[in-house]
Structures are given as structure tokens and as C-alpha cells.
Design brief:
Strand order of the largest sheet: 1-2-8-5-3
CATH architecture: Orthogonal Bundle
Structural class: alpha+beta
Largest sheet: 5 strands, mixed
Bound molecules: protoporphyrin IX containing FE
CATH class: Mainly Alpha
Helix content: 40-55%
Number of domains: 1
Oligomer: single chain
Length: 391
């Protein structure tokens, strides 16, 4: 029987890797008629398409769900859903506010936020690594970066959760998620208006202050950028932390051994279980690859999760190997759209895992009670019940 891959199949969400392997070998240019997309799975093909923004456009967005696809995608996706020259201008201006220095300066604040969530969780010795810890951290960090006051952060976390929540059987964003998107946009619009009158030391103020003559950012553009940071940097980072935890437990004889190799642990998790499994493009003029002709304007899914396990690049790809050279992984994308938050994601994951390592000598995951996120492109856990041995 031919290989079959759907964005909404829960069995595939549970374990997509055997399906990816068959796609790489039997159907490297895979077609799903019902959901109207093509998929590339080999590392070389995925990397090449990510690099080639002229033939593989981001102008309809990068997520295939109906509410998120189309020429209006930039309204919520900002420059993630744009091609050069619009992308170049906006990303360039945002990079000036989102500097490595601004990110590095966040380390101590991230540690304070991490401890605030971790300490109550550790008290009983058993907690939910994702719901009680990993999922709380990134949105608070984005709030810190953007300049959201502490009193509003719990509400922002609630809205962000609604936006990423998916319902079984619904092949699109649920209505509550769409409503939350508008509420969050309204909140950010108010924040920007406030900062216009009174600047502070935060990203919203820095974006307002980007002085570049006529090229300066409009308030609508700043709103789109703040929204993009939530959409791109919240659930992905939570899942990186959860996936790292699960990978160590699943693959290592003594999971806590990973505490001695935190940076390698993060990099190998990004390869083995990337939080963002696939990113879509529009094949502007169509193309022919491996003997298959893909028509102009086709929706093409680039399966990062498969590229990162292509044995042509990563020998014995299903094994967690902390000594492996992971530099060819495509977990943060490639080329012009390379993740702007990669440094922040790595910093958050490192701090989150260092704080666990400081308190814990061993841990167990209750796999039977764990719950996966069911999303067409996000890989991770909604719940990861854990028991720890404290120092
Ligand atoms: C483990 C965590 C993360 C993963 C796996 C991840 C993954 C990615 C990927 C694959 C892309 C490329 C999209 C494309 O080519 O169309 C991307 C872009 C982006 N990411 Fe991340 N991301 C993570 C964390 C973050 C964080 C923490 C932020 C910021 C708060 C962030 C902000 C962005 C932005 C702004 C872009 C758009 C870049 C552009 O279009 O030029 N990401 N991310």
C-alpha cells in the first residue's frame, strides 16, 4: 500500500518518524489531495527549498491550516509571511530592537521567572513538567521582553494557550482561538499606544524608537511583530524543554546524566524532536523534482522533522547521541527566515534545564499518562507527568 500522510492524523502525531522514512524513500515528493499540499522530506530538498525564497514564497504564510493560509497571513505572521524586499526591511528593523545583547541581558530575569514556577512544582516531588513549568516560562519571557507588566501576564498566558489549542476533529483554528487572537492584538495595540507617549526599556519602545527616516515601523507593523513573537516563540520553546526532558528519559539509561551536557542535550533534542515539524511555502512557478511535476502556486510542506532524521546526513538518525555533530539540522529553518529567536530559545531552554539540574538528581516520566499536543506542525507534550528525586 502507498504511504499516507495527513496533517490531522493522531497516530502520526504520536510517531511520525516511520511515515517520514517511507516518504523519504518511496515518495520524496509526496502529494495529499484531500488536504491540498505536497511534501518534501529529504534533507537536501528541504534545505534547498528553505534557501530559495524566490521559487518558494512565504507570502501566503507558512502554516497550512485554512485560517492561517493566504495573502492576508502577514497580518498576524508579520515578516514570517513575507518575501524580500518587504521581509528584508521589516526583519532588518526588528533585528535592531531584538539584539543579542537585549537577549543576553534577559538571562537573570529568565532565571527568576523559572525559579518562580519551578519551586512550587518541586514541593510535592511529582508535577507536570510541561503544564506546571515548561509551558509557563516562554510567555512570561516574551512579556518581559515586550514590556508587558507582571499583573497582565497570567491573562496573556491564558490567551496564548487558547491560540495554540486545537480541538479534535476541527481542521482549523477553533473559534475561541480566533477570538483570543483579536483580544491579544487589542492588548498589544493598547501597549504600543501607551509606549508612544512614555518610552521604557523594552522591545515595544525600542521598535517605536527605530529611527530610519521614512522606513521606520508603523504601529500596525509593530503590532504584527509582537504578535509574531508570541506565535513563534511561545509554544515552540515550551515544547523544546518538554521534548528534551522526554528524550533524556526515553533514550538514556540514566536520564539525569543529561544534566552534565545541557547544551548538547538541547542541540540533539532540536535535531531529534524539533518542536516545529514542518514549514510551508508556495511554489510560485512550480518545479519538477525526482520525476514529479508540481504545478505553479502549489502548497508545499517542508518537513523539518524528517530532514533532521535523514540518514544521508545523520547516521543512525533515530538514536539520541549527545556527541553527534548536529550543525546540519534545520530545526530553526535555513536562510533568510532563519529563526530570529533561536538565541532566546536556546537561552530559555538552558536556564530551564539548569534550574532543574540544580534541584534534581533523578527523574521518571509517567509515559502512560503523558498527553501529546495534537497540531499539524507542532511536536511536543501538553502534559508530561514527572516524579523527581530531589537533591
Ligand atoms: C525551540 C524553539 C523554536 C523553534 C523550533 C523555532 C523554529 C522556527 C523556524 C523553523 C523558523 C523558520 C520559519 C520559516 O522558514 O518560514 C522560525 C522563524 C522565526 N522564529 Fe522561531 N523558533 C523557536 C523559538 C523562537 C522564539 C523564542 C522566538 C522569539 C521570541 C522566535 C521568533 C521567530 C521569528 C520572529 C521568526 C521569523 C523569522 C523570519 O521570517 O525572518 N522563535 N522559527
Amino acid at each position: 500500500m502507498g504511504v499516507s500522510f495527513s496533517l490531522y492524523d493522531h497516530a502520526i502525531h504520536a510517531d511520525p518518524y516511520p511515515v517520514y522514512e517511507r516518504m523519504r524513500e518511496e515518495a520524496p515528493v509526496y502529494r495529499n489531495d484531500a488536504e491540498d499540499f505536497w511534501a518534501l522530506t529529504r534533507h537536501a530538498d528541504v534545505a534547498e527549498a528553505l534557501r530559495d525564497h524566490a521559487r518558494f514564497s512565504s507570502a501566503n504564510g507558512v502554516l497550512l491550516e485554512p485560517a492561517l493560509w493566504g495573502p492576508e497571513a502577514h497580518r498576524f505572521g508579520s515578516f514570517l509571511a513575507m518575501d524580500p524586499p518587504r521581509h528584508t526591511r521589516l526583519r532588518g528593523l526588528v533585528s535592531r530592537g531584538f539584539t543579542p545583547r537585549r537577549v543576553a541581558e534577559l538571562e537573570e530575569r529568565i532565571r527568576v521567572i523559572a525559579r518562580r514556577h519551578l519551586e512550587p512544582a518541586l514541593e510535592g516531588g511529582s508535577f507536570d513538567l510541561v503544564a506546571d513549568y515548561a509551558a509557563r516560562l516562554p510567555m512570561d519571557v516574551i512579556s518581559e521582553l515586550a514590556g508587558v507588566p507582571e499583573g497582565d501576564r497570567a491573562e496573556l498566558r491564558r490567551l496564548a494557550d487558547l491560540i495554540v489549542h486545537r480541538e479534535e476533529g476541527v481542521r482549523d483554528l477553533p473559534a475561541a482561538g480566533i477570538e483570543a487572537m483579536f483580544t491579544l492584538a487589542g492588548y498589544f495595540a493598547d501597549l504600543i499606544a501607551e509606549r508612544r507617549d512614555r518610552r521604557r526599556d523594552d522591545l515595544a519602545s525600542a521598535l517605536l524608537g527605530v529611527a530610519d527616516g521614512d522606513a521606520r515601523l508603523t504601529e500596525e507593523e509593530i503590532l504584527g511583530v509582537l504578535f509574531l513573537l508570541v506565535a513563534a516563540g511561545n509554544e515552540t520553546t515550551a515544547n523544546l524543554i518538554g521534548n528534551a526532558w522526554h528524550c533524556a528519559w526515553r533514550h538514556l539509561d540514566r536520564p539525569a546524566a543529561a544534566f552534565a551536557r545541557i547544551e548538547d542535550w538541547i542541540e540533539e533534542t532540536l535535531r531529534l524532536e524539533p518542536a516545529s515539524q514542518g514549514i510551508a511555502r508556495t511554489a510560485v512557478d512550480g518545479f519538477t523534482l525526482h520525476g514529479v511535476a508540481v504545478p505553479p502556486e502549489a502548497r508545499v510542506l517542508l518537513l523539518i522533522g524528517s530532514a533532521n532524521r535523514d540518514p544521508r546526513v545523520f547516521p543512525d538518525p533515530d538514536r539520541l547521541d549527545l556527541d553527534r555533530d548536529t550543525s546540519a539540522k534545520v530545526a530553526f529553518g535555513v536562510g533568510r527566515h532563519y529563526c530570529l529567536g533561536a538565541g532566546l530559545a536556546r537561552l530559555e531552554a538552558r536556564v530551564a534545564l539548569e534550574e532543574l539540574a540544580a534541584h534534581v538528581t533523578g527523574f521518571e516520566v509517567d509515559e502512560a499518562a503523558a498527553r501529546r499536543v495534537h497540531s499539524p506542525n507542532v511536536r511536543g507534550f501538553a502534559s508530561l507527568p514527572t516524579t523527581v528525586t530531589l537533591r
